[in-house]
Task: structure prediction
Amino acid sequence: MKRDALVAAALCALVALVPLAGEAYWLRLGTTMLMYGVIAMSWNFIGGMAGYPSFAVAAFFGLGAYTGAVAQKLGLPMGLAWCLAGLAALAFAAALGIALLRLRGHYFAIASLVVAEVLRELVNSATDLTGGGMGLNLPLPAMRSVQAQAIFFYYAMLGVAALTFAAMLATVHSRLGFGLRCIQQNESAADMLGVNTTYYKVAAFMLSGVFVGMAGAVYASWVHYIEPPDVFDVLYSVKAIVMVLLGGAGSVFGPLFGAALFLSLEELVWRRFLEVHTGVLGLLIVLLVMFLPKGLLSFSRRLPRASKQP
Amino acid sequence: MLTLQILANGLVLGGLYACIAAGFSLVWGVLNVINILHGSFIVLGGYLAFFGYVKLGIHPFASILIATPLLFALGYAIQRALINRMIAAPVLLTLTLTFGLDLMLSNAMLAAFTADFRKLILEPPLGVATLGPVVMPVDRLVAMILALGLTGLLYLVLSRSRIGRAVVAVRMDREAAALMGVNVKSVYAVTFGLGALMAGASGPLLAMIFPISPLTGPVYLGKAFVICVLGGLGSVPGAMIGGLALGIVESFGTLWFGPEHATTLSFVLLIAILLLRPEGLLGRKGYA
Amino acid sequence: MSGPLLELRGVTRQFGGLKAVSDVSLSVPQGEVIGVIGPNGAGKTTLVNVITGVHPASAGSVHFGGEDITRRAPWQAARQGIARTFQIVQPFPEMTVLENVAAAAMFAGGARFGGEAEREARAHLEFVGLGAAAGQRAAALTLAMRKRLEFAKGLAMRPRLLLLDEVNAGLNATEIDQALELIRGIAARGVTILIIEHLMKVVLSLCSRIVVLHHGELIAQGEPQSIIRDPRVIQAYLGRRYAQGGTPRHG
Result:
């Protein structure tokens, strides 16, 4: 654990130096990478460690974004708004987790997928509070320059990422992490061995929500304007999954590595195939899912009846 | 009477929904794959009908005969080439795979047809029928009858034909079926093809009633989810019941909450059902 | 401790119209080794499932150490000192043998995460003879070794009551003898054992009392020698089982 923490600290220091280069493009890219790093690591709590195929990330991100945005509109300072967003996501994840984590496999996946849609519609309808389909403008932070702003948000996102990583590191080396691994390997056996599976799963689900919520709020403040289809986009969930698959759920650095790698690929694609961007992204996803080393499949839930290739 | 009219609307809608969901439910029940492409298959079928009518004068009802084999072939090919490799993979991966494929297909359709909503308007229009206190546009009525007919046909194929029985056998117990000499890979490909076929066939029917656009794909997919949870996986009668139930719920929901909330309502229903009965309303435990 | 360790009062478990377990009452004092036998489908595993909380009892109650545990969840039963093994062995496949046992020590046994759990796990692995395999993946073990892993996990749970469900299925004669030794060793430590078995030789050599289930009902209980002579039991079994144990069959 100490070694991982040291490596992380070194990485963090390196990453913190990026703004010194000054270029707006790298700052933007870096902030986006850090954001996706948070999302990927967060998904790993419930998807990788506990083994539940959650697509709820988009719901947490959107919820966090709108909570932060609305809080700021109502006068709350940015930092506080972000914390509030994190808390809102935490509470929502707790309630949702208790409700949904009894479901198995497909039904859980579908339910978690659908939650983002429901939230999006609710936000869409609550026009008075959220601006509905017309989107929400956030108050601009008082800062010296555009450059200073970019650097500020870069560090803000770095902060959230560092927090998420610390939480992940702590979990992996704790009773909670071990219990989650047991659940992922064989949930009924874990139950019989004395693991309070509901409690552990909900804890993992909450962890998968709180940091994503904060990242959503930071994102909202960063871009100044959000609308429902923007932040409740199920693509966040799908990308998170692909990133973790890419980087490997086994190591603590896997999700981060996967996020960085995937985004680099996406950046290249986006610059060359603007019109068919989504399509090529789809192709990327298909190729990654199909040709990732089979070893990564072992982190997934073990089915009650061993299924072989027909 | 208003209630009767709403009920009738719901039933008509429900018949169409049953057709949408039957193929989806079959694929899920037999292959254990949630096919995100299903919505896009429906839209594709719709576009085939639209352009068939506008450019070539082919009546949408006839388009069904064109769309079905084409989409069957497409589905069969996709399954054989791609999904088959992942068939034993957990839901996470197959779901992500079909999601990626759907991104490709819907992007292709967007590029080819643009996001503009197209409305297929029949010349001359079929008019309106009056059955007692209920008023129903004829095109909807005929669409519903055809939809139910198609669903019924699927049921017959599954229960009478050789390949249909093989499909049902694989759904019940893959290993036992394989031991009995069933070529499971083939069955998977046929099933996926059937799923695509049903989607492609419902496309023209829906095109006559609702505007088409690649953006409507996810909406139909969402309905298919709900119907599967309502009616159970892999069963055609289940899809029928689920479809009719959803149609009625949406019909009354539109009356009480307005049309823009119809989809949200159905999703809330889905979550509510899963909370109360984690295996679905008519579902069997162990098919999750 | 006064009173029985485990007490079942009129326990019934129904699945739809089928009564898998029907009005079973049983009292197990601490330290006893009690055998549960019966033809296939008699409800033996269901009974264990009800005791551990996997299925709630449809009627009746289960008492452990004086407390009513009828509505407790499996993980709660585990923490209270009820351990069980499975007919079809259920390890954590991708985790090491050591981790498997450490998990049991930690979550049911109450050992602290880290060094303490690991030390205990190693001790239990030595006891069952798997010490050398500690670092292997659980999925890589042979069947006999997996069965011993189940024992080690059961022990690590620091149980007061150990429920053994067909631990000898699939083992050859030598392996069965080794398992018998192990079970005797566990009983010597004071653990109360309830053992579901098909093999009469095992049941006769280990148990001080035998209980017979048939179609979910408890049809007989008593000392081993009188049970095998009981006409109701013979009728339920049709005599086929006797061939395995080698005990003389009386008319």
Observations:
- Strands of chain A lie at 136-137, 225-226.
- The first strand of chain A starts at residue 136 and ends at 137.
